[in-house]
Write a structure and sequence with these properties.
The chain has three helices and no strands. By secondary structure, it is mainly alpha-helical.
């Protein structure tokens, strides 16, 4: 399954209210761990560098 198909599926599920997405709270109660989220995002970009453009997120 390609990234674009998964993106459409997840988007449809969110729109239908069947899926909610939230960032987990840190153990210290300070909210989401943005450093971990940034590292995860960078790793995904490294693995699939053209995924955002293919999904229509970038011009």
């Amino acid at each position: 399954m390609c990234v674009a198909s998964v993106t459409v599926l997840v988007s449809d599920l969110i729109d239908a209210g069947s899926l909610t997405v939230s960032a987990p709270d840190r153990a210290d109660g300070e909210g989401p761990d943005t450093q971990m989220l940034q590292a995860f995002s960078a790793d995904l970009r490294r693995k699939w560098p053209h995924a955002a453009a293919m999904a229509g997120w970038l011009p």
